[in-house]
Amino acid sequence: MSIEDLLDNGYWSECEGRMAVELWRASGESLSGFCARTGLRRTRLTYWARRLEAAGASSALALAPITVLPVRRVGALAIELRSGRTIHLEGDVDDELLARVIVVAERAGC
Q1: Cα–Cα distance between 54 and 91 in angstroms, integer?
Q2: HEC-encoded secondary structure of 42-103
Q3: pTM of this structure
Q4: What local confidence, expressed as pLDDT, does residue 63 receive?
Q5: How confident is the chain (110 residues) per 10-residue block, as mean pLDDT?
Q6: What is the rounded distance in angstroms from the CA atom of residue 29 to the CA atom of residue 3?
Q7: How far apart, in whole angstroms, are the C-alpha atoms of residue 47 and residue 106?
Q8: What is the structure's pLDDT at 110?
Q9: Domain segments of the chain: what residues?
Q10: Can you state the percent helix, strand and coil of the chain, rounding each to 5?
C-alpha cells in the first residue's frame, strides 16, 4: 500500500488508517509537514491517530516472517507479506528504508 493508494481511497479501513499513521510516525516529520508533503488530509490522519491510540493500537511490535519472491525484471524485487499483499520495488533501494517499510506494513497487519 502506498500514499497514492491512500489518496485514491475515499474511505479508509482500520488497516489503511493504521498504515497511514505508521507511515507518518516512521517519517519523523511533524503531522503538518507529513500531510503537506504527501497530500493526505491532516484532519483524517489526526482522526486515525487518536482512534488507534484510544483502541490501544500502538502495541509492541511483533515481527513476522516474510517471503521474498523473485521477479523477472532486472533491478526489481517483490516482497510478499504475511497478509498476502506484495510490495514491489524497482531500482536501487535503501536498506534502512526497506526495513522500515516492511516493519510498518507488518505492524499494520494489512
Answers
A1: 39
A2: HHHHHHHHHHHHHCCCCCCCCCCCCEEECCCCCCEEEEECCCCCEEEEECCCCHHHHHHHHH
A3: 0.50
A4: 66
A5: 68 85 89 89 90 69 70 67 76 74 72
A6: 15
A7: 22
A8: 54
A9: 3-54, 67-108
A10: 50, 10, 40
